[in-house]
Amino acid sequence: MIYAVRPFTPHPPHLSKTLYEKIRSMPQPKHLATQALILLLTIGTLAAQEPTVTVVPSNPPSANDLTPAAIAGSKEDPAAVQRGTKLYTSYCAGCHGVAGRGGPGAPDLVRSLVVLDDEKGILIAPVLRNGRPDKGMPNLGLTEPQIADLVAWLHAKTYAAGHRTTYTFKDVLTGNAQQGEAYFNGAGTCSTCHSATGDLAHVGSKYDPFSLQSRWLQPQSRRPNARSDGSAAETVTVTPADGHTVSGTLDRIDDFTVSLHDASGNFHSFFRNGAEPKIVIKNPLQAHTDLLRKYTDADIHNITAYLVTLK
Ligand code: HEC
Ligand code: HEC
């Protein structure tokens, strides 16, 4: 007979040692009582039957399923991604699942908009630094370099997920172009902004299928260098208390300042103080961000197959 001797595991594999010790040092009568009970049962079992074996899952799923192609495509430093993989496995996998696809009570990180919209950790890092203790995401006491490595891993993961059908040319063509066309003109609402004979007329010859899929699937505007050609940039309108409104392309916004370039290329920067000045931001790719939540895998295959035919 084979028994797993859980109470003797030094600490659950998904929790870091320090975190586990923190939890252990908290008064947890219920937990201790349960442990004592398990211990007693185990001792009883040990006494009753001799050979006891610790069972380790022979083929555990892993956080380390990123291909070199996905890491290269994500443009993250491979060494950082590798360190991030280890950190993720020990700190996060217990709640968010070994591959980041979510666990009981903890969200899927690969489809999280916080992760998908992130640029250089601006959105992810605050969550990792402070946690959301009131909502079940603990402050894990991570250092800044650890946070940077976890951000690199999450970026590589979302990149791989966005491109999961494009590793080989053959995979891109598994979709059904007719169903893709129907989705484009129907449920996908794509045709409310695009036209197969207008702006997307030659999109199938403009990009290879791999790039085409990433262009339509992943909203680009918040990503580095997306603004270099000015297209799909976020625009902002700033109205200070004196009423003189300035509009243009958003350069940067944080809690303290907002800055932009107006149509003549002039730079403007404003201090923020509560609701002053009034700020309205428009992201032309917001629809793409919203749609990302809705696609099924089949929709993704079908749309790409359809767009490829627009030569
Ligand atoms: C004890 C369980 C637990 C652990 C450990 C944990 N998380 Fe979370 N995490 C949560 C929960 C629950 C939420 C959802 C909080 C909410 O609803 O706002 C969350 C939210 C997040 C979010 C925001 C997702 C979104 O879309 O809003 C990110 C990013 C995240 N976690 C990353 C991590 C990373 C990286 C680690 C490891 C360093 C980690 N978490 C460890 C439970 C956990
Ligand atoms: C609310 C408007 C809106 C909707 C709905 C929308 N898009 Fe877009 N889409 C945009 C904008 C804006 C851009 C950026 C255009 C640019 O870069 O000049 C864009 C970019 C694209 C591009 C990249 C074009 C290129 O040449 O790089 C593709 C492909 C695309 N969308 C396909 C789709 C598909 C497929 C759907 C439906 C599933 C869709 N879009 C839904 C507004 C929309």
The computed structural class is alpha+beta
* Helix count, DSSP H or I runs of 4 or more residues: 14
Specify the CATH homologous superfamily of the largest domain: Cytochrome c-like domain
Report the end-to-end length measured between terminal Cα atoms: 65 Å
User: Sheet bearing the most strands, described?
Assistant: 5 strands, antiparallel
Count of individual beta strands: 5
Protein topology:
Layout: H1 17-25, H2 29-48, H3 68-74, H4 78-91, H5 93-96, H6 113-116, H7 124-130, H8 144-162, H9 169-172, H10 177-185, H11 203-206, H12 209-217, E1 235-239, E2 246-253, E3 257-261, E4 267-271, E5 278-282, H13 286-291, H14 297-308
Antiparallel strand pairs: 1-2, 1-5, 2-3, 3-4
Helix pairs in contact: 3-8, 4-8, 7-8, 10-14, 12-14
This protein binds heme C (2 copies).
Mind explaining what this structure looks like?
With 311 residues, the chain is of the alpha+beta class. 41% of the residues lie in helices and 9% in strands. The protein has four domains: 6-48; 68-162, Cytochrome c-like domain (Cytochrome Bc1 Complex, Chain D, domain 2); 169-223 and 287-308, no CATH class; 235-282, SH3 type barrels, CATH 2.30.30. The protein has helices spanning 17-25, 29-48, 68-74, 78-91, 93-96, 113-116, 124-130, 144-162, 169-172, 177-185, 203-206, 209-217, 286-291, 297-308, and strands spanning 235-239, 246-253, 257-261, 267-271, 278-282. A five-stranded antiparallel sheet has the order 4-3-2-1-5, with no helix packed on it. A hairpin with a 3-residue loop joins strand 2 (246-253) and strand 3 (257-261). The radius of gyration is 25 Å and the shape is flat. It starts with 16 loop residues before the first helix and ends with a helix. Residues 184, 188-190, 192-194, 200, 203, 215-216, 231-232, 284-285, 287-288, 291, 303, 307 line the site of one heme C. One heme C (HEC) binds next to helix 5, helix 6 and helix 7.
